[in-house]
Amino acid sequence: MGKEAASSISQELFKIDGKPSAAQALPLALQHVVAMIVGCVTPAIIVAGVAGLSSEDSIILIQAALVMSALTTFIQLFPLVKNGPVAIGSGLPVIMGISFAYVPTMQAIAGDFNIATILGAQIVGGIVAIIVGTFIKQIRKFFPPLITGTVVFAIGLSLYPTAINYMAGGTGSSSYGSWQNWLVAIITLIVVTTLNHYGKGIWKLSSILIGIIVGYIVALVFGMVDFSSVASATFFQLPRPLHFGIEFEPSSCVAIGVLFAINSIQAIGDFSATTTGGLDRMPTDEELNGGIVAYGISNIFCAFFGGLPTATYSQNVGIVSSTKVVARRVFASAAGILLVAGLIPKFSSILTTIPSCVLGGATVSVFASIAMTGVKLITASPMNYRNTTIVGLAIALGMGITQANAALASFPAWVTTIFGKSPVVLATIVAILLNLVLPKEMELTEVEKHVE
């Protein structure tokens, strides 16, 4: 009898509406939190640094990242609207978190304007996502894997300078480029890489977190950690609505809006990977529609509370595929842990004490994996002359124009903000246009004949 009961309880983990015991759900929930929490707070730390926020405001931004990630996850798990022409929430076992995809553009906006401008653009982006979700069937054809892969590749490439600057100590730091910074960063990177390739189970899954802990300890030895912000942080604090304000700047809205459209399409991949890996089926149109509409609505809500743009987290999708655990109770428990962590500013303040070199050493491999994910998507299509032209020109123009600082100097400021600050937007637009206009029949052999 006892064995039968234990067997029936364990099977609850593999049912989406299953009710596993807390003893079974909690460790699996912690596994999901460990896999995503560093990625969730790092964009907020990076943007806070670029915007020149005070310690107190940085803590508030990180706090909002955790709380809003938890709330948006709850909305996806338990749809607000299930039936009707438009659903709100996918009902699928996914984890939402602050997305690295927006970091290059947010850095540009934070440097030229402020956090309020990012949040205003995020509201516009949320509206774009709602439109994409509502008309997902009609819009999806404009974003085949070749295009989304090019965009993801551009995102990964554009994040490399951020990681390298962090490894060197952070731009503007008095110790920028010092051997201590590089030593700590390389030790962190070695730990992460070693665990990724030789670790098993929780060690492999927690490689970034463990790497940061090791790097943090080494940084402590070098006296590189400042705890002053922790001492002044309170033990409990609710998110502060409109603390950073909301501002709408047209060029920033366009830049973020384009990214929201792309990420809405990319979310289809994460939803599909979740259902195929954990439920052995493709997502329904209602699940896709509800998931993307909820993504838009929740990001509008997040903007009012200082939460930066969220998206589905692929590393958690990977956990679903490998464990087959899909019980909503597990994911709700993970969201609950994030929520509690976000409501305790002492916890958020400890995250702000992580030295830049440690974050750089830990995240450079994440950024590399983003770029290589893009390459995998790109190479899913045949690498004929047409497709290599699309990818090559999109990346060349996107990366080239943004790296040539004065390339758009004679253009209006809004042109520079949209096209000259982050390579992602320009690469996206070029890839979509070329995919529409270049003839599908052009093959490499025909072009080679002309060249000969």
In words, what does this structure look like?
The chain has helices spanning 2-11, 22-51, 55-77, 103-112, 115-134, 136-139, 145-167, 179-198, 202-205, 207-221, 228-232, 250-279, 285-304, 314-323, 328-342, 345-352, 356-379, 385-403, 413-420, 423-437, 444-451; strands spanning 96-98, 310-312. The chain has 21 helices and two strands. The protein is mainly α and 452 residues long. A two-stranded antiparallel ribbon has the order 1-2.
Topology readout:
Elements (H helix, E strand, L loop, with lengths): L1 H10 L10 H30 L3 H23 L18 E3 L4 H10 L2 H20 L1 H4 L5 H23 L11 H20 L3 H4 L1 H15 L6 H5 L17 H30 L5 H20 L5 E3 L1 H10 L4 H15 L2 H8 L3 H24 L5 H19 L9 H8 L2 H15 L6 H8 L1
N-to-C SSE series?
HHHEHHHHHHHHHHEHHHHHHHH
Helix content range: over 70%
Return the average pLDDT rounded to an integer: 82
> Structural class, from helix and strand content?
mainly alpha
Count of extended strands: 2
Tell me the major beta sheet: 2 strands, antiparallel
> CA-to-CA gap between the ends?
78 Å
Question: What is the C-alpha radius of gyration, as a whole number of Å?
Answer: 22 Å
Number of helices: 21
Low-confidence stretches: 1-9
Strand content: under 5%
